[in-house]
Structures are given as C-alpha cells and as structure tokens.
Amino acid sequence: MKLRIIPPFPLFLLLFQEKTTANMYLAKKLLTNAKRPLEWEVRR
Questions:
Q1: Is residue 20 classed exposed, middle or buried when 0-12, 13-18 and 19+ CB atoms within 10 A define those classes?
Q2: How confident is the model over 1-44, as pLDDT tens digits?
Q3: Smallest Cα–Cα separation from 31: which of 22, 20, 40?
Q4: Which DSSP string corresponds to the chain?
Q5: What is the pLDDT of residue 6?
Q6: Which of 5, 18, 26, 40 could pair with 33 in a Cys bridge, judged by C-beta atoms 3.0 to 4.6 Å apart?
C-alpha cells in the first residue's frame, strides 16, 4: 500500500484518528487511576 499525497485530507484524517486513539488510551488510564486519585496527584 503506497502513501500518495494527492489530497492532504486523508493524512489529516489519519493524524486525527491517531490522536483520538491516544486520547482514548489516556482516558482509560485516567479512569483506572481514578480509583486512587491521591496516588495519581502525587505521580503527576
């Protein structure tokens, strides 16, 4: 699969998708750490 630069829109979409995935991962991590918020505050 070759990456072509015909319109830059798909690339932007890909970057957005990557960011969304990272944000979802972060949110999951935050939810996991929400059980012990004091520990999370100290770690930051």
A1: exposed
A2: 565 555 556 666 677 777 778 778 877 887 777 666 556 566 65
A3: 40
A4: -----S-SHHHHHHHHHHHHHHHHHHHHHHHHHTTSHHHHHHH-
A5: 55
A6: 40
